[in-house]
Amino acid sequence: MATNYQSSKETTNFARICRLVIDVIPDLLRDLLNTRLPASGLSAVLTTQKRKIFSVLKQHQKNILYPQGGVFQGSVKDLDTSLLYILLRNIGNIPSHHQSWGNAPDIADRSLSANIDRLREQRNAAFAHAPNASLSDGDFQASWDIIRQSVEEIQNSELNTGRFVVAVDEMLTMEMDHRGTNKYIKELLVVIKGDMAGMSVKLDTIETDMADLQGNVGAVMDDVSAVRYDVSAVRDDVGAVRDDVGDVRDDVGAVRDDVGAVRDDVSAVRDDVGAVRDDVSAVRNDVGAVRDDVGAVKEQLTVISVDRGNKPRRAAIETTKSTVRGQTSRSEIISTQALEDAKEVIRKNGMVIIKDASGDGKTMMCYQLLKWLMDGDNKDTGLSKDPLQLYSMSKWDKIVQPEAQIALFIDDVSEDIVEELKRRKDSIQSAFCGTLNSRSNCLILNVRDEIFKSTQMSSCELFNDENAIDLRGKNLMTSEEKLQILEKYVPKIKVLSGGKESKFVKLAPKIGFPQCCRLYRDVPSLQNEGVDFFKSPVYFMEKTLKKLPKECFASLLFLFLNDGRVKKGDLDPNSENVDKKKLEIAFPGNALNVWTDIQFLQGFIRWLSGKNDDKNLCHEIKLALLNRACASGSEECALFLLSEGVTPDVETPFYVVEGGSVSVLRKLLEYDVTQTARLHMSRSPHIVLARNINVLQEACLFESEEMVTMLYNTYPHLVHDTDHRGQSTLQLGARTGNCDIFKTVERVVLKSLYRVEYEHHRCETVEGRVVHRNCVCAQYVCQLVTKYGGETVLHYSCRRGHMEVCKYLCESYPALTTAVDMFGGQTVLHYSCLGGHLEVCKYLCESYPALTTAVDKYRQTVLHSSCRGGHMEVCKYLCQSYPALTTAVDMFGGQTVLHYSCLGGHMEVCKYLCKSYPALTTAVNNDGQTVLHSSFRGGHMEVCKYLCESYPALTTAVNNDGQTVLHSSCRGGHMEVCKYLCESYPALTTAVDNDGQTVLHSSCRGGHMEVCKYLCESYPALTTAVDNDGQTVLHSSCRGGHMEVCKYLCESYPALTTAVDMFGGQTVLHYSCLGGHMEVCKYLCESYPALTTAVNNDGQTVLHSSCREGHMEVCKYLCESYPALTTAVDNRGYHCLHYIARWTSDIDLFTECEIHVKQYIESTGRKYDITTILTNQGSSVLDKAKEQIEDWTWGTVNKALLKLKCTLKKPRSTSVLGLYIQRPIYYLVQSL
């Protein structure tokens, strides 16, 4: 079985998708959430919005965001995709798409929320719903395109970066198999070990040489000793001479000269010994150098070993390298003086901070620095560094180590990251600070100017101005550099500007120039503005402000402080005339939340009231401020705006409920709008398709007991309203799963039901609790069912697994336990099993055992429901507790529970049933289909493969129609499954069913292009096969109206276009006209004109076929394009109007065709008279209409009507209107 898990192109496709889902999508969502958070940070938002967020979290998510006894201390980088999705949806101020959050968006909907939901769906498809760890090329490309487009649109509209699309593109082609890399590492280790062995031999030689040298030095010393001895002997001889021959002094002088010569020789020997000593010292130094080289090699081996062991870091480095190469290869990149200054700072200090405003190109400069460090300073590879972009400070300690030779990059440093960096001051000091050398690390920080100032980042000595590059101050881009950038972005700028491109640079603002150039290039309408755009780049400011959270209205505050005007230089802190006091008030570094800032609102309302602008516009502005203040829960601001005379609209009460302010709601009750307001779609965190709901119902969904009680006491009638699906307030309360809120709603509902005359139907009390059996309360609650499905409140709670609510309803309203819905007659136990809620399921089974044997209107048991949902725990519990359920079959098709699990592709449940109840593997349904047929019909590869390999006999089984499992998979268009069967069981490719249809017929009938093409190219004989009626595969595709398949077959196998069937001699155009498929019909007519005049064995044209089936569009096209067909008759003399009158009741179709018939006849010089259009038997059009009415009224008790119909005479008028007034076809049918 090991071969089942070999790597393949399909598993690599799956791995690439997983890389996107695990690495890119979470980082994208993190950046997006950061842009949506206020400056106060995530922890503050979680505290203020706890009521809104807490109820939608699962328990483990609550433990993360709301730890017991404390507050969330992490950052956005610590959140997984699920939490990021929840926060973006609930606190990101992102409008819902048309299908609402949590649902699949429309294809044409490219809104932000739609793209987020698309990424969520792709993540679920890769993990939660993937049947196996492989993806076909087609499925892979489809998923990849969806993800890339969504990522690109989110990036371009919301984020100031290009790295995510680059990451997606790089990941598409990057090497996924690291075996080659490991091979190279092993080869490198072999070479290094060989070099070290050579060094060891050299060291041994050096040691031998030194030993020999020491021996020579010893010999020299012996010679010196011998000389000294000889000199001593000479001295003795001289003394003797002096004693014996005192008078021979001349000879003694000669001896002295000889002794002097000897002394000179001794001195020379001493010099030689000194030289030898120097040589020995040099050898020692050489040995030390060799030892240092060996140590360096060992360190390099250690680094290689660490890198091999730290795969995530190596992967992060490779990803960063790919991003850097992609970013720095863009054509618009230039080298600026600021870049050179940044390099010098790194050479000197080992770190640099790049700071500026949005759009000034700081991120690109950081990538340029990383590329420079990758290559090594001055192309010196010994100084090269591994670039690594850090996204989460939680990974700092695992990555940052002294002398690791990395260039660490942190993009878009936030306030939280600044605090983390300050806390790691010692780590930065030891790992990064110092001059650039071969073993040092480098740190590059990208921080916005406002963050740098608001966090007082410069107060830390590591982040002072000496380490900073200020792109808005001392390192401002020069005019020459701006001109270079402009020409890079817009090569035709000389033409577009009329040679005045320098004016663009001169008038451009001092912030965001690269971004302005990009916008000027990418938005054609801006090119029409010319220099005016650069002079006042409103579009750039709009795009930039959109990246800020909606609460950030500092710019509006500055406008207010500056009398509603902004002059050139007013916002430039380097300007000589700037009012720094106003700038400091408006832009203190902390974002201003206007919905909660009472001073701003008071001042803004006064300013707005003093304007002579459109009063309606002013009211709309005030109303928008009121609604947002209500939604944010700011009581002071909301009450102030109401006191200023702002009139709430129909949405205001719902914003109040969302904000949770009871005081504001109490004030709002003074306005009539509260009781009549209706909301199109609930804003509650519960995934509820509740539309057209009132305020009380919204309060229930937000689980606010105090608001529910207040609204009921004021407007008691609201409690009985229902939404568009007939859901009552009580049912919506049950959907929340909050038993307290449900009881609150129940209490006010039951209170409204009390009447004195109902005293004799009192509620019962059992063991201290109220039980509603025959009382009016029980009657009311039991009849509360939805409009379309007929679900009770207990159905709701069981479907969602709300145990507490479920138990309370069962005990309080016993009649609910036996209720069934209107849709399929399903019990509450069916609902809990379908949802896979084991706790609720066990409670219902044990408390109400009769439910375990209940079946719905299709005779589906509760085990069928659990198997259909693929819920293993529930399935296993039911099988073991109630064995009789395992043999039950439904009434819909005689399908077993194994059929259901195979059809749904639930592998775990399928394997359990097969092993535990082997008899199920041979069971067939009423159509003779095995469980393998069901799995192939669903296209579930893992289940299919398991059944084929475990039960080979199933692969040759056929159903009642003689269809094999390959027929089923081809009909469903499941390419992967189809290919597996063809290659594993080739005999299936030639099998035909009872109608003589091949598997290619099945795929063409289903219109599955990929499967069709594969079968045609792999098994060419199938393309000429015909079934028992002589229908080709092209007949099948035309009858189904599958344009792509039809076109492929026509162009690839042109002989098929002239084929006719054996049943009636009908062409492929006849088949498309019978099916009413306009696109296919038009293609065949225009591509193969001869088909338009073809008739079948009965002489019927293609117009006869379309008229008989009543296809208006096709009939009209044929009449207009080929008018000669309007007078053609078949072998029995039937005209197209005969066909319409005999086999349809479509007056509009008859009228349309008659107009064309009349026009064509009169164009030939003849007179049109409908009474002359007769069959070979002399039957008129009206006669055929009578025959149709006879068919309709046959057997009816209205004999008088039948007699009247049969005695009708021919119409007196030949006009279309007269014909239909006098002929009873339409009016008689309407009165039957």
TrEMBL record:
What superkingdom heads the lineage? Eukaryota
Entry's InterPro entries? Ankyrin_rpt, Ankyrin_rpt-contain_sf, HEPN_DZIP3, nSTAND3
The record's annotation in SMART domains points to: ANK
Every DZIP3-like HEPN domain range: 42-182
Q: Where is the Novel STAND NTPase domain?
A: 335-490
Q: What is this protein called?
A: Ankyrin repeat protein
